[in-house]
Amino acid sequence: MGVRFIKIAGVYFFLAVMLGLVMGIIHDFAFTSVHAHLNLLGWVSMAIFGLIYSVYPNVGKTKLAVSHFWLHNIGLPIMQGSLFIQILTGAELTIGIIIGSLIVVLGILLFVINLLTKLRAN
């Protein structure tokens, strides 16, 4: 799971940097919250998850880790895609933001449970 998280973290980093570049070029920073969440929940958090799972491979080889990966990578695009479209169009997509957020939170809860139950000192 470590390598998977690190690879997808790189993708989110690229997306966040490109969004930041476009906002800077057009001098419109309406999508700053999307940019920040892609960086924090996409790039930084996923890179840290990947490093933890790489350093402690027994933690990364669990069903909890696999579920965490998929929940995070389903919830984050739903949450940020809904927010992006809501900001872009003005359409009310709060339900998508809430659903995506709850999916991410569930994935993070599984990550914490995994750490608390499977992480052992080397």
Automatic annotation (TrEMBL):
SUPFAM superfamilies: Cytochrome c oxidase subunit I-like (SSF81442). The keyword Transmembrane helix applies. The chain crosses the membrane at residues 12-30, 36-56, 68-89, 95-116. It comes from the Bacteria. Keywords: Membrane, Transmembrane, Transmembrane helix. This is Cytochrome-c oxidase. It comes from Lysinibacillus antri. The lineage of its organism: Bacteria, Bacillati, Bacillota, Bacilli, Bacillales.
